[in-house]
Amino acid sequence: MALLALLILGGMAWRCYRLNEPLFDSNAVRQYDTAAIARNLAESGMRIFYPQVDWRGDSAGYVEAEFPLYNFLVAGLYRTFGTREWLGRGLNIVFWAVAAVWLYSFVRRWGRDERLAMLGVFFYAVVPLAFLTRSFQPEMLMCLLSLATVDCFWRWTQEDRPVLLAGSGLALAAAMLVKFPSAYLGLPVAYLCWRRFGWSFLRRWELWAFGAAVFLPSVFWYLHAHELGTLHGNSFQGVYLKLGYPGPGDPVWLQLAKQLPLRLIFEIGTPPGLILLAAGCWACRKMDGLLHVWALGFALTIFLTPHGHAPHDYYQFPALFFTSVWMAAGVLVFWDGLAARPVLQRSVAAAFCFSVLGFSFWFIEGRTRITAFERVRVQFGQRVQQVTEPQALFILLKERRGLPRLEYQQHRYAPGKYLCSDPVDLYLTHRKGWCMDHVQATPELIEEMRRRGAKYAATEFPELLKPGPLQTYLSANFQAVEITAQWAIYRLAPPVATAPELRRREKAAGS
């Protein structure tokens, strides 16, 4: 147990590296969206059923999203200790530690091998993708709930204790609320049922009750979330669904084919650990098949949600449980091999482990480095807070940078019309309003938003600071609050009154 404690404390300490840095280290857009919902919950009374985003325009900001359980927990920390982003990362580090202990307990019982469990925790601590679970996102909570689902259900099939079945159902229901693709865990659960009861499991009332208890909370929540998106025009999912399932010629399949092997090599298995991963996967085929069915269920989610898996490595977080155990089994293949020189083979096994550790340190050093432009974005946000009013609505301008994908346009400002939903600058400025890329930001659209209450337009993107149509339009029509070599902030004139508004004012003045 001392070695396990050392592994977990070491893993937690490593995850505290650059803990207080801005949220640009991995999937910045996703992290800042999550942080914004947490901050809005803390500032608006902890209404967990009404999550709000900053890219809301002039709406109330309620958004169609997954159940904000993680955001709610972070918001509670904010109300106690103040709004500090490292608290969100720290909470995920705690979740990682709990998951590591749980993984050890599960593998020790399931695999009946203390060494396999300890090595599994080692790889779960050190591979690069496992480090990224500390990011300000709900995925680590979902992973912990996923592991609890499988372990409790497996134990229920071994011990037949109702509390374990209830615990598994509660964990799976919560995991699906946090991230609905967690429904893939139904495959390993069904496999465990079949292995324990045969096909007669379909006639067991407690399993039907289990299924209903698992799915009904998600049905109620996602219907409510859809209503929020329909009424208020903000959605993480609505535009996604309009994309439909990609056809065979969709570019997402090529992107998926390129990215997944790279992540397997550099983030999950690591180059020196790929041999361990392959050897362990082959060796574990002799066991009861649970890990392989678990992996098969997860693989199905890749093909069912390719638009999520292709650009985002955090979609692969749940794979870390079975890949870590397979890498651990690979070490034991070398350690317990039949070679005539056991000292040599054990030296090779140890060399593999240290090589994985060394590669991970090198890889994560690069992923956690904040660029000069990202530092400018933080300074820009601080400056905006200094020179503008807290409640003023903003238009934040950004470059499109070759990303015109529909799922980045999720704020509906008019029927059938959407703006991009990049949360970074709105979060850093602590302002609400609209986000537009330079293609969308026409004089006509800016004027429309000005009439709807926009008080400022600003940008810190270098290309938008250079002379051009957009910069010329802003400079010619609006007062510059501050223009530097790094950013520009314009105060928009008061909205021009419409004819009906003028008539109402004249009538009110005459009376």
What does this protein look like?
With 511 residues, the chain is an alpha/beta fold. It folds into two domains: 272 residues, no CATH class; 120 residues, no CATH class. The strands form two sheets. A five-stranded mixed beta sheet has the order 4-1-5-7-6. α16 packs antiparallel against α17. The chain is globular, with a radius of gyration of 26 Å. It starts with a helix and ends with a helix.
Looking at the chains present, what oligomeric state does this protein adopt? single chain
Task: Give the strand order, joined by hyphens, for the main sheet.
Answer: 4-1-5-7-6
Helix fraction, binned, reads 55-70%
Distance between the termini: 83 Å
Supply the number of helical segments.
23
Q: Biggest sheet: strands, sense, closure?
A: 5 strands, mixed
What structural category arises from helix and sheet content? Answer: alpha/beta
Radius of gyration (CA) equals 26 Å
Structure keywords:
2 domains; two-stranded antiparallel ribbon; globular
Secondary-structure blueprint:
Elements: H1 2-15, H2 28-43, H3 69-81, H4 85-111, H5 114-126, H6 128-131, H7 139-159, H8 162-178, H9 186-197, H10 205-232, H11 238-243, H12 251-268, H13 274-283, H14 290-304, H15 306-309, H16 320-335, H17 342-367, H18 372-387, E1 393-398, E2 409-414, E3 417-420, H19 424-429, E4 432-437, H20 443-451, E5 454-459, H21 462-465, H22 469-477, E6 479-483, E7 488-491, H23 499-510
Helix pairs in contact: 1-4, 1-5, 2-3, 4-5, 4-7, 5-16, 7-8, 7-9, 8-10, 9-14, 13-16, 16-17
